[in-house]
Amino acid sequence: xxxxxxxxxxxxxxxxxxxxxxxxxxxxxxxxxxxxxxxxxxxxxxxxxxxxxxxxxxxxxxxxxxxxxxxxxxxxxxxxxxxxxxxxxxxxxxxxxxxxxxxxxxxxxxxxxxxxxxxxxxxxxxxxxxxxxxxxxxxxxxxxxxxxxxxxxxxxxxxxxxxxxxxxxxxxxxxxxxxxxxxxxxxxxxxxxxxxxxxxxxxxxxxxxxxxxxxxxxxxxxxxxxxxxxxxxxxxxxxxxxxxxxxxxxxxxxxxxxxxxxxxxxxxxxxxxxxxxxxxxxxxxxxxxxxxxxxxxxxxxxxx
Amino acid sequence: xxxxxxxxxxxxxxxxxxxxxxxxxxxxxxxxxxxxxxxxxxxxxxxxxxxxxxxxxxxxxxxxxxxxxxxxxxxxxxxxxxxxxxxxxxxxxxxxxxxxxxxxxxxxxxxxxxxxxxxxxxxxxxxxxxxxxxxxxxxxxxxxxxxxxxxxxxxxxxxxxxxxxxxxxxxxxxxxxxxxxxxxxxxxxxxxxxxxxxxxxxxxxxxxxxxxxxxxxxxxxxxxxxxxxxxxxxxxxxxxxxxxxxxxxxxxxxxxxxxxxxxxxxxxxxxxxxxxxxxxxxxxxxxxxxxxxxxxxxxxxxxx
Amino acid sequence: xxxxxxxxxxxxxxxxxxxxxxxxxxxxxxxxxxxxxxxxxxxxxxxxxxxxxxxxxxxxxxxxxxxxxxxxxxxxxxxxxxxxxxxxxxxxxxxxxxxxxxxxxxxxxxxxxxxxxxxxxxxxxxxxxxxxxxxxxxxxxxxxxxxxxxxxxxxxxxxxxxxxxxxxxxxxxxxxxxxxxxxxxxxxxxxxxxxxxxxxxxxxxxxxxxxxxxxxxxxxxxxxxxxxxxxxxxxxxxxxxxxxxxxxxxxxxxxxxxxxxxxxxxxxxxxxxxxxxxxxxxxxxxxxxxxxxxxxxxxxxxxx
Lengths: 304, 304, 304
Known about the structure:
Chains A, B, C: One of its GO terms (molecular function) is aminopeptidase activity. Chains A, B, C: Keywords: Aminopeptidase, Hydrolase, Metal-binding, Protease. Chains A, B, C: This is Exoaminopeptidase. Three copies of one chain form a homotrimer. Chain A is 28% helix and 29% strand. The first copy, chain A, is built from seven helices and 19 strands. Chain A has two domains: 4-70 and 136-303, Aminopeptidase; 73-131, Elongation Factor Tu (Ef-tu), domain 3. Chain A is of the alpha/beta class. Chains in contact: A-B, A-C, B-C.
């Protein structure tokens, strides 16, 4: 699998609230590549969707949601930083961004939970900083910051190539409280009658979920999806022969949470590759799990 | 009062996300019993409502919400359990469920906050377990798991027998983050113009709320309903002569929270019997409080 | 600037859930004063809005939200109090309210986080108490309880005098979990096509935000608004010549949170004067910051 697209996606500066940069990249990609896709989607963008993108293929029954935003840091006062989402913070991590004085490449300092930066000059208040990408590809795995969730975005873009019926949503603010999914849910339900959704996102390697053992179907996290729907997905995964693993967690959340709590009757299920080094510059995912993720999405979007 | 229906309700396996079992039981009950009700309701079910049920009687002005789901446990990896909602956990409690290998009756183990099970075989990942019901009826009281909220459901079903105008909703996921009430609120407001709701649920015996002293009207919990509406309910309770108690709490929540936060202008009030042994297998409620609860609901649904 | 209106507003008993008193005051004020306003607004009130008020001027593009409710305390059992919102509590603060036995002026007692009152008689369960207002006006500053957010309300009322196009919303429950903004958002978006909102509220003096240095534009708090929109506001503030300060916080929240999470695509930004003594009887705001706040709102409502 050619992962150069994923490498590009991982290098785009788009923390929560600044998804516009990634959205523009995606729109250019869609314009250039969609002529080769099996079905031409209707592309929904604009003020009704803020910076989100919705692609409608054929007669959709199921939606795929992939969040564009990443975790990061906001410059506060003096050299202080406040987190965007829940970044793993260690002294020495390299952060990048820019303000009116120019490009920034500085060092993160973590001291007993207090975050700050070390840089040759003061950085403008409110400037957002993200991890500097360091792409590492091995035979079996890839490693970089922001595989969560540029890999979920990549998976959705690859899925577009053969998708006949379905909706693909690129969402915002997932890492920091959400806010775009309720808008998209309203449009999907009221305008397209869609009530099923798969969350194309990245999860954790744990004592029960192992790298290289296949895509993960999450039976629950902090939220609990409707069991009858999750069972249907597991049955379809089982019949497909694709490698998959079942996850059960008490914590963690996703765009699924906002579908769950919206005024529209959505069934949702989180399905994604597991990673090590969550929310750090060193997120690591096995290639086999990426391949299984895409295959399972292709299978499910046809069968559901 | 014949409580055999309540006894049946308490024994149904329906933790958050698996309300379908209870919903099917309720639909059978409604089909069998509604011919004897004073007014025949319109029964709303189906994919628009997920596993919830809405009964519309006459020209509704006020809705009653009773949540079907219970707290419980999900099997994680090895012998680990993660909670569904906030169960009270003690080593030795008996849990039941089933997986593909057959029925399960195992023991809960609590060790410094870590939850696990003890059973003769491994239980399938993702299996849900609930307390084994142990129904104990005395002259003045009943005791069992899941009076919260099968008693709220029971109260709503009894109310149906004489209800002329109103909506009865059986809701889902209340114990674990919610998710069904916003859907129901939209339908109630947009299709029926209903803006008033009573939460038929079970509350706590405390230093200010005593067993056997009557149904509880909650003036606030973690959420604060509109005072003018609560005052109106208290005035109606006062004129009715039915035994009631006023509750004031800083914590605790209910389906009322989701009405409060929905995009629809609902007034809501929590009204229910108090119990001891909250979220344990030994929830205890006084019969007098159950009787007062039903009487007050009958009075309020007529007067509001 | 004549601040007698603000002084009146600060003395009205209207904690979360009891906004009706303030709403009635505002409706009388609007009726009496609107004939002198540049444009006559359409006044939306009634059951669709609960106790909120919406004023629609001309062809609105942007809304201003000011919350009417204040923090306070609810009488629980015996002499216990539970907080409404997050009040700063110190033994000796004077609280006022009334119950069926008459007016109340009692003393707050704080003991290791436990709150109670000291008064010559028992106070009725559920009674709400608020800080007794003690208005102190100096040449440069004012000090009283509830400048948060009666000053935001005052700012909105002053803005009405010259407003040509826009919506002014007086909201409820902001200090305690919210609940009215989703309703208003639905109406603003669906009936008026409005998608932009300014949060007229009070923020904190910190090491980066100084009293008397101008109105505060918050770039983020616990929630993160869309950066492109915040940048547009900062650029307009810059060109206006009005004194302003930029704020960056990791915590704190406002009515903006509920716009962010609503099913409607709102851009929002918190803009308000900073105060010392937050949520205490001694909230202090500089007059220069009040003046700058009103000027910036006037400028933005014209330019956005």
